[in-house]
Write a structure and sequence with these properties.
Structural class: alpha+beta
Bound molecules: zinc ion
Number of strands: 19
Radius of gyration: 24 Å
Number of helices: 12
Helix content: 25-40%
């Protein structure tokens, strides 16, 4: 399957890919290395051991301060507990080794990575972390098939490329400004940050989208700093603000109406929460000091009332005994999780011992709605129009 995909990409992009497959360095071939930032992505965490395979590898060993060249195919293995020894006092991550191959590709865990792989030793555990160091533009092209869909129209992927590049540069800036020495990487390859693929995930549309937007990011009108750009799968009718979801304000965001995602994916979702679980949720809210201490026995005795709720409300109101609480709709999702609350766009009702939730959309609802972007691209709109819809107070800037 992997071979098939590779051949498919190679055939479609014959002119570009044949040199990659059969000669030297894909990264250098695809992108002019000098002006493009290098990003460090955490691709493996808490590993007991690390095995990296490649051809014509150069290895820099940070502990021994040596540089070694291995001709031909080589397997490099690290048993991470071995390095605890006298390093057991360490309080932060340290670099162990950096590997690169003349082919531009290294294999780890049956995946092929472009660029360099850096092995670091975690601070406390006898474990390693693995960091992939690659050109930001390669990172973006490998991310598009994972964070969106590599087969989607190029204009939708271009909007995603600009959004993801902005987020990545924001995280890179954060690491450089952080005093923390243990920040050996810029961001994680996980839902915590952004998910990127590896070499075989690349599609022609993803590659085209990254190249056609090279160096482009979104910036707010009135700030010199790069601020984070967020995106999600489907807003279900409206987008919301970062502050509503994570509590911290991010400049430039506005909530926008979106009908574009309406006809894509499931029209709505439903969930149920038993009253007893809702009481536990209230206990959590009190513990987190999100609401004042309140006697929850009124809820147990059915002496409470939920105000009529609608999609358009960003919070719901509940009367408990003598108290009334206005709760942000993002709190239940944070507590009950994404399976019960696929999105923050819903309305809630109470019916004999249980709460009934009907929702639309998928994801946190902040920033660009990906299915909305798909719809706009299918209707012939370009990525600038798509970005302007979801980020009307941001402007497109070409950094390099
Ligand atoms: Zn939408």
């Amino acid at each position: 399957m992997k071979l098939f995909l590779f051949l498919f990409v190679a055939i479609i992009y014959g002119q570009i890919f044949f040199p990659i497959a059969f000669s030297a360095t894909p990264s250098k071939f695809l992108y002019k290395a000098s002006k493009i930032p290098i990003i460090k992505v955490m691709v493996g965490k808490n590993l007991k051991d690390v095995e990296i395979i490649g051809t014509d590898i150069t290895r820099k060993n940070y502990l021994k301060k040596t540089l070694s060249n291995f001709d031909g195919r080589k397997k490099v293995y690290y048993s991470c507990s071995k390095y605890l020894g006298k390093e057991s006092y360490r309080s932060e991550s340290i670099l162990l080794a950096s590997l690169k191959s003349k082919t531009g590709l290294l294999s780890f865990d049956n995946k092929k990575y472009s660029g360099n792989l850096i092995v670091s030793l975690g601070p406390k555990e006898q474990r390693c972390d693995l960091i992939n160091e690659l050109s930001l533009e390669e990172y973006i092209s490998l991310l598009l098939p994972k964070e969106m869909n590599g087969a989607w129209p190029v204009e939708a992927l271009k909007a995603q490329a600009v959004a993801a590049r902005t987020y990545a540069l924001y995280k890179m800036g954060q690491r450089k400004s952080a005093a923390s020495e243990d920040a050996l990487f810029d961001l994680e390859n996980s839902e915590k940050d952004q998910v990127n693929g590896t070499f075989f995930d690349l599609t022609p549309n993803a590659l085209a989208a990254a190249k056609q937007t090279e160096g482009e990011i979104l910036k707010t009108d009135d700030s010199e700093d790069i601020t984070p750009i967020f995106f999600h799968a489907k807003c279900g009718g409206k987008t919301i603000l970062p502050g509503q979801v994570w509590g911290n304000e991010v400049p430039g965001y506005v909530g926008v109406e979106c009908k574009n995602c309406e006809k894509h994916a499931d029209p709505y979702w439903t969930s149920k929460i038993e009253k007893i679980r809702m009481i536990k949720f209230f206990r959590w809210l009190i513990k987190q000091e999100l609401i004042p201490e309140v006697d929850l026995s009124s809820m147990d005795k059915e002496q409470f009332m939920l105000a009529p709720d609608r999609y358009k409300n960003n919070s719901f109101r509940i009367y408990l005994g003598d108290s009334v609480f206005v709760l942000s709709k993002t709190w239940p999702r944070r507590y009950f999780g994404r399976v019960i609350f696929p999105s923050n766009n819903y309305y809630i009702k109470y019916d004999t011992e249980e709460f009934l939730i009907t929702g639309r959309g998928n994801g946190h609802g902040v920033g660009m709605c990906q299915l909305g972007a798909l719809d706009m691209a299918q209707k012939g709109m370009d990525y600038k129009k798509i970005l302007a819809k979801y980020f009307p107070h941001h402007k497109l800037v070409k950094l390099y």
